[in-house]
Design goal:
This protein is α+β, with helices and mostly antiparallel strands. Helices cover about 60% and strands about 10% of the residues. It is elongated, with a radius of gyration of 21 Å.
């Protein structure tokens, strides 16, 4: 199911304090995944635009070298677990 289909599957309930949207949990999760994908695509577009503006220089674009940070990331992952 696409995010748009999830939005279209919303049902409405009217209560004493107003009208509420009710969504099936599977539809909700599909909607969240769709939004996250849109955010990822936008982040990638922005990163590549910055890289292009720096004539392809990852260093001038502020990108970090994997070899320089992989140890730090490993430590963060261990902290999260």
């Amino acid at each position: 199911m696409t995010g748009l289909e999830a939005l279209q599957s919303v049902q409405y309930v009217t209560g004493k304090t107003g009208r509420f949207a009710v969504v099936n949990i599977d539809d909700w999760e599909a909607l969240v995944e769709w939004i996250e994908t849109l955010e990822d695509v936008e982040a990638a577009k922005q990163a590549f635009a910055e890289l292009k503006a720096c004539n392809g220089s990852r260093e001038r674009a502020g990108w970090l070298r994997w070899d320089d940070i992989k140890g730090d990331l490993g430590e963060l992952i261990q902290e999260w677990q």
